[in-house]
Amino acid sequence: MKKDDTKMLTKMANTLRILSADMVQKANSGHPGAALGLADIMAVLSLHLSHNPKNPSWLNRDRLVFSGGHASALLYSFLHLSGYDLSLEDLKKFRQLHSKTPGHPEITTPGVEIATGPLGQGVANAVGFAMAAKKAALMLGEKLINHKVYCLCGDGDLQEGLSYEACSLAGLHKLDNLIIIYDSNEISIEGDTKIAFNEDIKKRFKAQKFFVLEINGHDYEAINSALKKAKKATKPTLIIAHTKIAKGAGRLEGSHHSHGAPLGEDVIKEMKANLGFDSNSSFEIQKDVKFRFESAVELGDLSEAKWRKNLENWDKKELLNALLKPNFAKIKYPDFKGKDLATRDSNGEILNAIAAEIEGFLGGSADLAPSNKTELKEMGDFIEGKNLHFGIREHAMAAINNAFARYGLFVPFSASFLIFSEYLKPAARLAALMKLRHFFIFTHDSIGVGEDGPTHQPIEQLSTLRAMPNFLTFRPADGVENVAAWKIALKSNLPCAFVLSRQKLKALPEAVFGSVERGAYLIKESKNAEFSLLASGSEVSLCLETALLLEQKGKSVNVISMPCFELFEVQDEAYQKRILQGKVIGVEAASAKELYKFCDAIFSINSFGESGKDKDVFAHFGFTVQSLCEFVLRV
Fold this sequence. Notes:
Blueprint: H1 3-27, H2 32-45, E1 63-66, H3 72-82, H4 88-92, H5 121-140, E2 149-154, H6 155-159, H7 161-172, E3 178-184, E4 187-188, E5 191-192, H8 201-207, E6 211-216, H9 220-232, E7 237-242, H10 265-274, H11 287-312, H12 317-324, H13 343-357, E8 361-365, H14 369-372, E9 387-389, H15 394-407, E10 411-417, H16 425-434, E11 439-443, H17 461-466, E12 472-474, H18 479-492, E13 496-499, E14 513-514, E15 521-524, E16 531-535, H19 539-552, E17 557-561, H20 565-569, H21 573-579, E18 583-587, E19 601-603, H22 614-620, H23 625-634
Helix pairs in contact: 1-2, 1-3, 1-10, 1-11, 2-3, 2-9, 5-7, 5-15, 7-15, 13-18, 15-16, 19-23
């Protein structure tokens, strides 16, 4: 590296520092420490990134993930300087309502690849991007897909178990397109990391089959050399960069007090003076620095133009178009009319039908595919095939598949037992926040799990899924409802959960009024109904049987199947009134408190489960025709 290069890199890094510090100071909120400490790395990394600020969605761009989303001020400064649609005014509105510069990166900001914030998510997302890129390169050819995935992370990311789960898979699959840069500043909110963290990170990642480099994170030549080596590596790379938190911030350099609070006007003025900036000016950008960063526009345009040139005589345009715009109308769904099946079984057939027609549809289970019925038969394993094997890593599975969904070519699903949705809820929540087309398959949906006992019997999980915004939760009562649910889900552009039974369920009669598309419908209707029994999943059949007994006792009863609470919730008042007649009684083998929105009473479970045969457990909690009938008559 030449002397002039070092001089310019110093100016670039210091500009990133000043902008980041000014953003946090003006907002009087934020995390300046990591941004200042990473500025030297970001300046050098800008020379290596292949991206086009004029087209942030260019398919073959390098992906840059800030797993430490609290360093968003640095990311926004870089994006502005590089020519993305992020103005200086946007930087000045950092952390303000409706701004393009929120506190942690969100995909509404041009140039942000994926929403990060909860630590560790970005590391797993980066692994997912790298896996998606490997799959895309195999399908489309390495001339078309050959980019790298860069991830900036810190101590907090590596302390979260999620990063360990994800990096284990990265090493297994030899993801040589993945470069993780670890900002090792040895500082956390409570002080020195040694109070809670003393791992040998180098040995940990070598054990996970990574290529590991260790450098001074403020030495431009060392940073540049490490990035060059990483780009040529034959396995995923971890660059351990030893840095000073709040580098350049005078008395706050190296202090945990710089992590989550503004530096203060006095410290910033002193820093500006020491770095050669006007101490009385804010958001200062020198022309030569802006020019150097903005070269990314011209270089990115050129790179994308060359890439598009390769498309001209390329023989896989049709495949690319099919991946970019999947045609869900061509799916040949199974016919389950009149068939008694566990909904996990009907769902397995549906998954295979979708995968057979949709090129980018893939997914896997957290080591439960035989139980979840999620194997895509005769479709091979990753990388060549469509079955992704995640091992017992629910959280990494969901975060990795979030990245598959964001990549632009794939429609992923993640599968586990409903009770283990707890292990992946943070990633599912981020899928909802981003409105990703990511499908969650949750089988063993109730106390019907039986002998596995209370630890494996979901009680409150269904309610927590239904409570999530931008998320649809389907609990179909038979195969026909299951097919209808999938048709809705694929059109919705939202993450969806399919909550499915282990035990066989009886096929339902046809709808009397309404449809699955509207969330709930009448499956049995009586004149001037005194009661309406409302249920989902396995409890719908119980309600139908109970209605017959109630009618023998002179009661007029309707039965409502509600496969999707959220869809019914948004229906117009007239439709809801037509469905909800008489005294409405919710029936669900779970906590089901949300059903009070529509119900006068709820027959549910207010404790954890019990261990025993499924029929015995259902009987213990009163889920029998006789017990439900007696409950209704008491309402």
